[in-house]
């Protein structure tokens, strides 16, 4: 993760965040047959108004390499978090920056933020059949399958719940 810094997104970052999020989802094949989700991913202003959009930037060039949206239960983008849980969504790494630890840095920033807020767990959902690299990233960080959080927003789109217990102390 050397050479990376994670910080809150600034309005000037929004076009880069929109571009790289859509590009990452397209590269993973996650937008095939989707109706309207690309537009949701590209609407960074709406996400930022109801959650925290974080970006990973190259420390030398300041280029935005990845982003994630951190949310709490009851907010518009929260899909599965319950009391005491935080959630992150729309984690995306620019396809040209993959393999640099960008995803891991963004996950760690979300875990740190949840811990800072006193949350007891972090929950996420991943698309069934999603790239093995994403599953490995979450597994390495300690996320475990949590079938109680599985759900399907549309026919043929199955999302698997993952949960990370946070230790206090």
List keywords for this structure.
169 residues; alpha+beta; 8-stranded mixed sheet; 5 helices; 8 strands; 31% helix
Please provide a written account of the structure.
The protein is of the alpha+beta class and 169 residues long. The longest helix is centred in the middle third of the chain and has 15 residues. Strands 1, 2, 3, 4, 5, 6, 7 and 8 form an eight-stranded mixed sheet that branches. Strand 7 and strand 8 form a beta hairpin. The chain starts with a strand and ends with a strand. The radius of gyration is 15 Å and the shape is globular. Helices cover 31% and strands 30% of the residues.
Write the layout of secondary structure elements.
Elements: E1 4-8, H1 14-27, H2 37-42, H3 44-50, E2 52-58, E3 64-71, E4 85-93, H4 102-116, E5 121-127, H5 132-141, E6 144-145, E7 151-154, E8 157-165
Parallel strand pairs: 4-5
Antiparallel strand pairs: 1-2, 2-3, 3-4, 5-8, 6-8, 7-8
Helical content band: 25-40%
Query: Which parts are unreliable, with pLDDT below 50 for 5 consecutive residues or more?
Result: none
Using DSSP, what is the number of strands?
8
What is the CA-atom radius of gyration, in angstroms? 15 Å
Measured distance between first and last alpha carbons: 25 Å
Q: Helix and strand string, N-terminal first?
A: EHHHEEEHEHEEE
Mean pLDDT: 90
Main sheet makeup: 8 strands, mixed
* Overall geometry: globular
Number of helices: 5
Question: What percentage of amino acids are in beta strands?
Answer: 25-35%
Helix/strand structural class:
alpha+beta
């Amino acid at each position: 993760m050397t050479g990376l810094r994670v910080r809150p997104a600034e309005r000037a970052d929004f076009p880069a965040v929109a571009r790289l999020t859509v590009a990452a989802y397209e590269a993973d094949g996650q937008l095939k047959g989707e109706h309207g989700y690309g537009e949701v991913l590209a609407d960074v202003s709406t996400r930022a108004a109801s959650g925290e959009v974080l970006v990973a930037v190259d420390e030398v060039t300041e280029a935005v390499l990845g982003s994630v949206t951190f949310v709490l239960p009851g907010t518009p983008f929260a899909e599965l978090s319950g009391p005491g849980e935080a959630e992150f969504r729309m984690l995306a790494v620019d396809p040209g920056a993959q393999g640099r630890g960008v995803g891991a840095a963004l996950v760690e920033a979300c875990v740190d933020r949840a811990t800072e807020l006193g949350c007891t767990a972090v929950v996420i959902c991943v698309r069934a059949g999603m790239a093995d690299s994403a599953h490995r990233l979450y597994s390495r960080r300690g996320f475990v399958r949590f079938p109680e959080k599985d759900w399907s927003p549309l026919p043929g789109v199955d999302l698997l719940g993952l949960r990370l217990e946070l230790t206090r102390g």
